[in-house]
């Protein structure tokens, strides 16, 4: 698994994929926080990163599928998946190696944004920014990113076309993140069922963690979500041998 992880990370940074992903994420979020009116922290004296944590999931909805779209689709198209299958590693180790490599790139992309929190904290007046809520939001953003990576890996495994994998991953990320919120607002279900439907989506748990309170139910949700898509990916990879 470590060999797969190192190989994937090297492929990200030996090409433009890793650098473009980092550059696009930091550029878009930086513009909204420091430049664009109505969202930048300087003109309105905001001592929080709410605009960043509201925008970041939507940027990752497109960015992560672009990172993961070649994970398996390129292997299937070129036939190199057969070489991996002959190595003394299991299909689950192949899936986990590719998953952890993609998540490492996402982590490496989010890490520089800690400078945003440091800068706003230094510029803010008393009582200053809510550091607990900010750290909670970062934890939520990492869990959301990990979930999107699991979706992207799965989408890449079911097709050998990178464009199809990208579009499918974008759709699934959007659906899992916000579609359940819209469904719960249709007022066609009872109140209790509406709440259950809302809790099926990622956004409800992301917002919950962003308040700074780490609820075990939210953690269990994210880990279960990730495990489910990794299991689906493993099943799809194994099905190529059936």
Write up this protein.
The chain has helices spanning 2-14, 17-34, 41-44, 50-68, 73-78, 80-86, 91-110, 114-123, 131-157, 162-184, 191-200, 202-210, 216-239. The mean pLDDT is 84. It has 242 residues and is mostly helical. Helix 7 (91-110) runs antiparallel to helix 9, helix 7 packs across helix 13 (216-239) and helix 9 (131-157) packs across helix 10 (162-184). The two termini are 23 Å apart. It has one domain (2-239).
End-to-end Cα distance:
23 Å
Poorly predicted ranges: none
**Total individual domains:** 1
Proportion in β-strands: under 5%
Query: Averaged pLDDT, please?
Result: 84
Outline of this structure?
The protein is mainly α. The protein contains 13 helices and no strands. Helices cover 79% and strands 0% of the residues.
Characteristics of this structure?
242 residues; 0% strand
Draw up the topology in text.
Blueprint: H1 2-14, H2 17-34, H3 41-44, H4 50-68, H5 73-78, H6 80-86, H7 91-110, H8 114-123, H9 131-157, H10 162-184, H11 191-200, H12 202-210, H13 216-239
